[in-house]
Amino acid sequence: xxxxxxxxxxxxxxxxIVQINCTYQTSGFxxxxxxQQHAGEAPTFLSYNVLDGLEEKGRFSSxxxxxxxxxxxxxxELQMKDSASYLCAVRDFYSGAGSYQLxxxxxxxxxxxx
Amino acid sequence: GAGxxxxxxNKVTEKGxxxxxxxxxxxxxxxxxxxxxxxxxxLEFLIYFQGNSAPDKSGLxxxxxxxxxxxxxxxxxxxxxxxxxxxxxYLCAILSLQGxxxxxxxxxxxxxxxx
Lengths: 114, 115
Hints:
The complex is a heterodimer. Chain A is mostly beta strands. Chain A has strands at 3-5, 9-13, 18-25, 29-37, 44-49, 53-57, 60-65, 70-75, 84-94, 99-104, 108-113. Chain A contains no helices and eleven strands. In chain A, strands 2, 4, 5, 9, 10 and 11 form a six-stranded mixed β-sheet that branches. In chain A, strands 1-3-8-7-6 form a five-stranded antiparallel β-sheet, with no helix packed on it. In chain A, β6 and β7 (60-65) form a beta hairpin. Chain A is globular, with a radius of gyration of 14 Å. In chain A, 37% of the residues are buried. Chain B is mainly beta. Chain B is 0% helix and 57% strand. In chain B, the strands form two sheets. In chain B, strands 2, 4, 5, 6, 9, 10 and 11 form a seven-stranded mixed β-sheet that branches. In chain B, strands 1-3-8-7 form a four-stranded antiparallel β-sheet, with no helix packed on it. Chain B is globular, with a radius of gyration of 14 Å. The N and C termini of chain B lie far apart (28 Å).
């Protein structure tokens, strides 16, 4: 299985930049996802990384280092609506079962303040 | 979420009753996952389908939980003899390969309340 760690809570100021880290331990790594989840809503897909490096999508970027078991989500020009939980998820391939498991971290609750 | 419909959106049931939750993805997504999320908690993996088969059922909490998928599309999660601790939001997710990338979409979930 996986062990996925991310900070429980973070606070940042509107207009600033915030970096949310995620570390993981896995044996059959097959990609890392970031999701945003507002209270009472389903998670929405933000990004997917399977190769090392930075993927940029507008104000959001995601970085992956497979050798370090490390990823981060970077949010620029923070807006109040960015207040949400951010979930890191790792996909593992289990050759014995021939299956992919997608395991989520417990999420980082980001509060954006004026 | 794009491409995944779950029903019902809300379900209130009496303890001891059986419930069936449905996930209806748009066609072409072979990988389908069920999760549950209790209030203020993270996502708990339940079961994974590849096509119609479930190679990983390791997350099902007890034998009261079962799931099936037919035609490589619709999946149902059944909870028998519901207990109050089953109260949670049950989420279905699909993986979609798009060009060089991969996206994974969630349905809006079924909020189950056992009273």
